[in-house]
Specification:
The structure is a single chain. With 107 residues, the chain is an alpha+beta fold. 36% of the residues lie in helices and 18% in strands. The protein contains 3 helices and 4 strands; from the N terminus they run βααβαββ. A 4-stranded mixed β-sheet has the order 1-2-4-3, with no helix packed on it. α1 runs antiparallel to α2.
Length: 107
């Protein structure tokens, strides 16, 4: 399966928002955490059934510390890779190179 749960509240300005705007941060988490846990359960199920998955999220996300993701992270068949989005030709609105690094986890 291909997994790409939202990273709102789990990366980027999350630490700053947690302090400066806790209500908005809590709203972000209320959307992201349940979907992150569902994706983790799906990835773990795939591994347990001898199947494959790929998960895309920004490098450094807290996603992989939630729920079943902790088991998935340390599973012997799990492989990590990182890709700068500019390597895929991604551009910002002003056509400049998009430099955000994404972490891909999968098998």
């Amino acid at each position: 399966g291909i997994l790409s749960p939202p990273c709102a509240g789990l990366k980027g300005f999350a630490a700053l928002n947690r302090v400066t705007n806790p209500e908005a941060h809590a709203r972000s988490l209320s959307m992201s955490v349940p979907l992150a846990k569902l994706a983790g359960a799906t990835a773990l199920y795939q591994l347990q059934q001898g199947r494959r998955f790929i998960s895309e999220n920004p490098k450094g996300t807290e996603l992989y510390n939630l729920g079943d993701w902790t088991q998935v992270r340390f599973h012997p068949r799990t492989v990590w890779t990182y890709c700068d989005m500019c390597m895929d030709g991604m551009r910002d609105k002003d056509r400049s190179t998009h430099t955000e690094a994404h972490g891909d986890l999968g098998l």
